[in-house]
Write a structure and sequence with these properties.
Length: 128
């Protein structure tokens, strides 16, 4: 087997419209398509970032909350590369996004910081 690339990342939201606004208006993703799946009472939106990455945004009735902080089993976080982490943090904070402090990755020496989507999913900014 040869894996070519990561095709998409899926995120489940408690409030589809709120999360769609966060990923498009705050983070700059583009909504490619969305569909309501009546049999599941669920929305599914396909979001692109610079035409390269695809994020599938789902809603389901009453999904269980994330059990703990970023150290729960499963996807730990999604990281986004930026040119300037400090500037990106300032921009996110200015939009009311909950952010952690700027820090340096002890293994790479690169600047990084965590922030959170509307459901508390940890997201990371990482300076190239």
């Amino acid at each position: 087997m040869r894996i070519n690339r990561v095709h998409h990342i899926a995120v489940i939201a408690t409030d589809y419209e709120r999360s769609k606004a966060f990923y498009t208006e705050v983070l700059g993703f583009t909504l490619l398509s969305e569909v309501y799946r009546e049999e599941r009472d669920s929305w599914m939106g396909d979001l692109a970032l610079h035409g390269v990455y695809l994020l599938e945004l789902f809603s389901f009735p009453s999904p269980p909350p994330r059990p703990t902080g970023p150290e729960s089993t499963g996807l730990r976080h999604l990281a986004f590369e930026v040119d300037d982490v400090a500037a990106a943090l300032d921009e996110l904070a200015g939009k009311g996004v909950r952010c952690e402090e700027l820090r340096t990755d002890p293994h790479t020496g690169k600047r990084m910081a965590f922030f959170f989507d509307p459901d508390g999913q940890p997201l990371e900014l990482y300076q190239a």
